[in-house]
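Anyone up for a design puzzle?
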């Protein structure tokens, strides 16, 4: 394939190959050469401008039960502790082995996890720092991170931080 076989989309600047024009997935629309993606958008367009579309209206009636009164503020987000924590994890007070802050080995492990996005990672860092501030007797011996899948509403990759102390 040589350079003469490749043209440029006049809409987005993508490469337009001769075989795409021949097969019909790319071509000319209103005098412009378009790539397959821009051509698909133009073919799917009903001819009207997006600004002409009417906005979607929502019913703001109060008869939707508790949904209108649900508090979704950040003050409602809390870390689970003790028996409330998912998976039956225990608080530090329930373990009989004492912490060893000046020793060489770790005696406990704490795991944190979050979705992989900037906001979630920042929130997890804040949780780790708050946990360390609340537990002054904790001396971190070793920490590791990995990425793994967590199942919830959707299975998605999470950053998992294990802190051994």
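Challenge accepted. My sequence:
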């Amino acid at each position: 394939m040589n350079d003469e076989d490749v043209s440029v989309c006049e809409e987005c600047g993508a490469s337009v190959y001769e075989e795409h024009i021949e097969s019909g997935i790319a071509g000319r629309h209103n005098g412009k050469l378009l790539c397959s993606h821009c051509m698909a958008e133009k073919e799917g367009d009903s001819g009207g401008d997006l600004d002409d579309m009417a906005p979607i209206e929502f019913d703001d009636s109060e008869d939707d039960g508790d949904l209108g009164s649900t508090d979704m503020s950040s003050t409602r987000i809390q870390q689970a502790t003790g028996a409330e924590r998912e998976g039956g994890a225990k608080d530090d007070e329930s373990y009989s082995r004492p912490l060893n802050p000046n020793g060489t080995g770790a005696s406990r492990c704490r795991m944190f996890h979050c979705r992989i996005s900037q906001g979630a990672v920042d929130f997890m860092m804040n949780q780790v720092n708050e946990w360390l501030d609340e537990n002054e007797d904790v001396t971190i011996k070793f920490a590791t991170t990995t990425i793994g899948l967590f199942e919830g509403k959707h299975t998605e990759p999470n950053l998992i931080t294990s802190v051994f102390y």
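A detail worth pointing out: The chain has three helices and seven strands.
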